[in-house]
Design a protein that fits this description.
The structure is a homodimer. Chain A is α+β, with helices and mostly antiparallel strands. Chain A has two domains: 318 residues, BirA Bifunctional Protein, domain 2, CATH 3.30.930.10; 86 residues, Anticodon-binding domain (Rossmann fold), CATH 3.40.50.800. Helices cover 41% and strands 20% of the residues of chain A. In chain A, helix 7 packs antiparallel against helix 8. The longest helix of chain A is centred in the first third of the chain and has 20 residues. The relative contact order of chain A is 0.12.
Amino acid sequence: MNKRLVKPSILPGFMELTPADQILFNKMMDTIRKNYEKFGFLPIDTPVIEKSEVLLAKGGGETEKQVYRFKKGNTDMSLRFDLTVPLARYVSQYYSQLEFPFRRYHIGKVYRGERSQRGRFREFYQCDIDIVGNEKLSIINDAEIPSLIYSTFKELGFDDFTIYLNNRKILTGYLEFLNLEDSAPILRTIDKLEKIGPEGVEEELMKLGLEKETIDKINSFIRIEGSNDEIIQQLKDLDVDNELFNTGIEELATVIKYIGLFGVPKKNYKISLSIVRGLDYYTGTVYETFLDDYPSLGSVCSGGRYDDLATYYTKQKLPGVGMSIGLTRLFYQLREANIIKADESSLTTVLIIPMDGFEEKAVEIANRLRAEDIYTQIYLETGKIKKKFGYADKLNIPYVIVIGEDEVKNDQYTLRNMKTGEQRSLAVEELIKCLK
Amino acid sequence: MNKRLVKPSILPGFMELTPADQILFNKMMDTIRKNYEKFGFLPIDTPVIEKSEVLLAKGGGETEKQVYRFKKGNTDMSLRFDLTVPLARYVSQYYSQLEFPFRRYHIGKVYRGERSQRGRFREFYQCDIDIVGNEKLSIINDAEIPSLIYSTFKELGFDDFTIYLNNRKILTGYLEFLNLEDSAPILRTIDKLEKIGPEGVEEELMKLGLEKETIDKINSFIRIEGSNDEIIQQLKDLDVDNELFNTGIEELATVIKYIGLFGVPKKNYKISLSIVRGLDYYTGTVYETFLDDYPSLGSVCSGGRYDDLATYYTKQKLPGVGMSIGLTRLFYQLREANIIKADESSLTTVLIIPMDGFEEKAVEIANRLRAEDIYTQIYLETGKIKKKFGYADKLNIPYVIVIGEDEVKNDQYTLRNMKTGEQRSLAVEELIKCLK
């Protein structure tokens, strides 16, 4: 062959897995999907490519710089950078065909041309749920989201995680009460608390022109501690004369009460007044979720309540509440921290190994097993038996059936447990019973 | 609100579904995936964006014009236009980490900027399987693929479909025997038989410079009819002195024999000597699958054997066999032809409807049902009971539980079958039993 070979490689910042890791990844995705469906969320799937005019209707900000935007012919198009903008567009576009509250889940890839760095991806899966109301939406929905987060992470195999909650109305109202009308930059600063520490927050607030006394008040406010009930009581005791503040407390108290009714154990949810979320569009309840033993992973699932989903596309007022799991990043981090391992991942239950020349019997038995929904592969290549066993071993296939002259003569087949090495001689009916 | 609204819309040539249709679509995709896994195929997932240099290594042809290709910074990148090129790249890149035969499935979106027309999509799902050998691959694999096609379409709800098979060696060998060395353009012409009819084929072959007598020979050759065994016998009887031709017959006979052993009913597979597939890279067995009652849908599942998968990336010889289902197009066609309908599609089993004020009990019962894996939604908004029932009705949710004062007092809840209208009063334990 004389032609020049191209080096097979992918772009930096894209995750690609070996099949064993992919099986693990898919299992996590299936678990998430199953929980979303169990709570009555409907699937949608939107195009990865959309009109730039639509996708970037909001415009500005860091996000727009990261967008993959290009022209084909005269059409200006972009790859979606999240699943929220497509949801807003979808709900506006099909408004008359949807039933409200509209509960949708969406699991799909999104694209951001971020600067390449370890653990950050340019293509990643988001797993989103949102409940969108028409004009109004009960506050109880804000409590159902954490109960779904709990159900999902529990089934993903975690016990020790905490859903931190807050309500943005409380802090915004408190800032109003302190006569700080432009709350957005202050909230964004407080959102950095985990990253830059209390001193960093203090410094940045000073740069925003806040007085020392005010900063101290904010600092001690966001550090109010105690049980959920105690925090709510302390907030009430502040006796702040601000409507937004008091509405926030009332909402938070209701959400806390209902999270309990939804059966989430006390240890798995907690009010934290410093949780504010960076995004401007949240207006009420906000969530972040941390794995207790791995706080350095950051929030693995975040979300919140917003007043109006689709202001760029429709005059309908569409309040909602939702959350998102960034699965690609989560998977990467769990694997890096050795919390999940692909060592034993296999979808296939059994590999049938015929001795050379006994392929027909192997096919016949595979038919029987597959008819019983037993995930079965046949090793169809000729070669040494040792190599065939090695194949099962490397693919982590837990069982092997060997078929040779004796087996066919006696109509009894050797079933080997690849983990224990145990072998038994069984008729086909018994094989099926064992493998089911 | 004074700001200008952007009209919510998507680009032409992209499919987007209502949730009810999406549920149907996902069910089809799940069925396909389940069958792929049952036969021992491993999942992979590759980036949608790849380096243009890698993705377009082959270059030229219609495909390249259709590719979404763009630059971000200095990087020249493209969206994948099929799943075969990414497979070739993947196998070459991870060669030393994979076990051969490497059986992979890949379900994902691909992109082609085709001219927009009804039923053609610029973004569509392909569902591919391939078995890739290292240096060699048993011919029995060529028979396992049709048995998987059979299993999949059967579970998708079809009975009357036919997998048409051929082996390109036979026709290529026959053309060699007729002293026609440049077989590729002739095969591409014969591939158009369905589209342009026998006269069209004849005309094009004349344009290629073939003599009338030769064309007649080809014409009667590709029309050889009969049972599978009869066709093979007739081919043998031609007594063609060409090695390729005879190897092809031998392979085809083996494949036909093994398809039977794999349990595919006789009515579902058939040799057709006019099936050649347009793509150059097939070198042996080729498949196309037609729904017997809807031939106008064209082939719904095609594939075949190739000698070497990854000539552009590696010197390793990687023969393989595979097939692909174009799910987006298939779904669109089935829906257009009214073969599938979304009327009754729901993932949710039951909607709990509390009378205003009885939300707490609704939450409590939802917990119980979800703990038993019953897919449950609670209607949490206040409003008239009729509206709440209408919601269940429009979402095709089959059962409703009503909770009001009497129900809570007696600890007995009304379960309504939304299809029959039948209502029963039941304790929670009985509700669970009924809904499971």
